Amino acid sequence: MQQPYITYLLTNLRHDAFFAGTTRDLEFAVATHRHGIADIFTRTHKLTELVWYQADHDLISALRRKLRVAELPSGKKADLVEAENPEWVDLMPCDDKISA
Question: What kind of fold does domain 5-84 have according to CATH?
Fold first, then answer.
């Protein structure tokens, strides 16, 4: 059985910017953002905290979810996180985070 597609949200320590992505390897995707090799936006805004994710079993559904989430205003993204992760806990903690 194949791994599901994961749509995820990253934020920074101040929770004032977000990045929505889709992947099949969440650990690898988050690591590339944390090490600054994935995307200029995540590197510039220091988006290293994984605060929300959802699994889909097909790529089309995952990409549609990513587009819906990415188009949300920041306040609605925060609401999405708080509904499932009210403490804003990093769902993939590590020791090598980029500081704010």
Answer: GIY-YIG endonuclease (3.40.1440)
